[in-house]
Amino acid sequence: MRTVGVEEELLLVDPGSGAPVAVAGSVLAHAASRSADDPEGEIEAELQQQQIEVETTPTTSLADLGSQVRDWRRRADELGRGSGARAVALATSPLPVDPRTTVKARYQAMIAQFGLTTLEQLTCGCHVHVGVESDDEGAAVINRIQPWLPSLLALSANSPYWDGRDSGYASYRSQAGMRFPTTGPTRAFSSGADYRDYVDDLVATGVPLDGDMIYFYARLSRHYPTVEVRIADICARTVDTVMIAGLVRALVDTAAAAWRAGEPAPATDPEPLRLATWRAGRSGLAGDLIDPAGGRPQPAAQVIDALLEHVDAALGANGDRDTVHAEVERVRTEGNGADRQRAVLDRTGDLADVVRTAAEVTQN
Description:
364 residues, alpha+beta, seven-stranded antiparallel β-sheet, two-stranded antiparallel sheet, 14% strand, nucleotide-binding, Putative glutamate--cysteine ligase 2, glutamate-cysteine ligase activity
């Protein structure tokens, strides 16, 4: 069974006002003196001082993954409280914010290169790593999973607000992230070497600073033997993260099996994939999604059903079918994070309440 792990970016907010606070340095200083009770994995700085990143260790069990995610969210919130903040699973801040970039040479170089795109970028994602046997297998997987990735964005969408207003999107993070020129879907790759050469060619243009700035929605990790899927917003609840991770692993399993069987990969023209991603970020589960098979709009429920059917054998083989199906159905019934944020604002009229509610939901 393939290993799976996640990286989650958490927003640091004032417990009263709900506004982001630039206390990552203090949080990480407290985290440096770790105890035996701390979760395995890592807690690290991120681009802005109003966020941190936590990382689980690889596991083959979704139950274990859920425990790690829950433990890290709890620990991050405890550390945040020690610095007068809460650690919250919000993919963008509902309240206006002036991001403060972390004082680190690489991030300062990003400011010099990308200007306001770096200075204004305060978004939080969920990155899922799934183990692969080789770069060749990983490249074959990337070729085959890309048409399904917008469905993961629709399920995870958790960023309807930007600069104190409703953006009109279920995931405005997906819009903000596209400001970086290396974000998005890719062409197909003939091999792992073809993928690595392509990345080297992009870096050689001098636009991205390095290979870590290749923000493909699905990429080969430079540091681990994994495919990393980066399209999802940070999920509102731990169980949502587990669902997304289970679906990503099943997509990787399904794609790798098709590659080993000699089945051709679907077309991976980046422009239609980019439009499908826009559609998913715009309406989430509330409208149409682009059908990966036909490339035309279909009701979101129909496309999500097709996703579940596509990965059914892998979900069953991994023992994940019941868990993933139950959580997908719950999200379709109760709404994704964006739907729940909007419901709070409709009820209270106060964006600070949206943040405070999200802080409690983060621990669920």
